[in-house]
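Try it yourself: sequence plus thymidine-5'-phosphate, in.
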Amino acid sequence: MEGGNESRGALIVLEGLDRSGKTSQSSRLLSSLEGLGYSAELWRFPDRTTSVGQMISAYLSNESQLDDRTIHLLFSANRWEKRSLMESKLKSGTTLIVDRYSYSGVAFSSAKGLDVEWCKAPEIGLLAPDLVLYLDIPPEKAAERGGYGGERYERLEFQRKVAQCYHALRDPSWKDVNACQPIEDIERQLREIALDHVTACKIGRPLSNLWL
Ligand code: TMP
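Structure, out:
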């Protein structure tokens, strides 16, 4: 397994502003891949089931206050505590569809004014996604979608800054998908792009690490 060239699952990340449709599209993508006979799982960050995740959840619902750097490091720790399980799942051939990942970590914290390189530093060495599907929606449109749920970052002005920060993070694994299209069209596009990557990983693309 160490050479990383054997058949493996793909690490597919969905990113986007709050209310961009990531969560429902992640579930649809999972069903499509499973329907085609692929082994796949749906993950999400923050993973609120761990003790670190519970601290994050309390912060997001404004039940606790934390310094901006402290919460950034907790989000990062929440990914680190899942890294080895993530690697073993991928190596055993399971594709992971991940609803938010390191790009959320860097975009949301740098939107608060923290230095981007500082934000990336604790994320160095996490597994790099094979594909980042960015559900692209103007912040104003996202805000119109049934209202925000009352969590800490669900404010239009802040989401505008997050959108700018996301755009600065684009890399070769990144694909924009217009999130204002009908749900079925988005679903089809995501499935087509994802399938190309799942196939590429099956024929032996090695795993790599983030932000290097
Ligand atoms: P969720 O609504 O997808 O559960 O995400 C919770 C909020 O946390 C969302 O506003 C994005 C934000 N977030 C960060 O600030 N840093 C991170 O690393 C992650 C994964 C999410």
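One thing you can check immediately is this: Residues 18, 45-46, 60, 75, 100, 104-105, 108, 151, 153 surround thymidine-5'-phosphate (CB under 6 Å).
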